[in-house]
Amino acid sequence: MLKWADIKDKQVKRNTPVLSDLPEFVNRLKPGDIIVTKPSDRSSGDAGGIFAPIISAVTGSPWVHTSVYVGGGKVTHLYSGVTDKSRGSLKDMRVRTQSLKSVSRLGNDFLALRPKVDEKAKQEAVKRINSLKGTPVDVIGFLRAGFLPGKRNKELKRPDEVICTGATAFAYPDIDWRKGKSSLYTRAVDFVKNRKVKEIAAYDPVKTASRILQRCNFWGVEDAV
User: Does the reported pTM lie above 0.85?
Assistant: First the structure.
């Protein structure tokens, strides 16, 4: 079901389909696709968590969080592993795998990007981001992404700490995501604007807020592995 609502003009390309049906969106995905996320007017939890307003203010873009689709309806990304019975904290943030269905319960908008690389590179990307599972958040990294990203290192080693966009960039070390700057401090907007990706589809869900959603935040409800 196509829908032109919360995702505004210029946030996606003119020919990018905007869907309100999650299964239809998922059916268009392939392992290795990058999903960028932004809060919407009906979000019960902000994409990007407490950093979302800062990220948007610094980058001038609504897109604030990224993940990599790893197949089977799941993404691997940085979040705190919150469940419907407890709330996590900043110190609980780790790279984890979560079902896209549970991420979608928060009412945020998605945009799927497909890197213009061969299938082998996409398969390797899934392996690389999954190799980061358990890696904790780099709190200072959010500031570095905004102001001091440093120079690009083509030999991108496994980081001890990471931000969500850095984890996504780690999956594709051969792509210069930020024009000569360190990939570990890439911003969500850098993925959207990069010519090495193609927009596949956007997801802008129907308003289905409930009391359960009101209690949740972006960083997940169950399904963490």
Answer: no
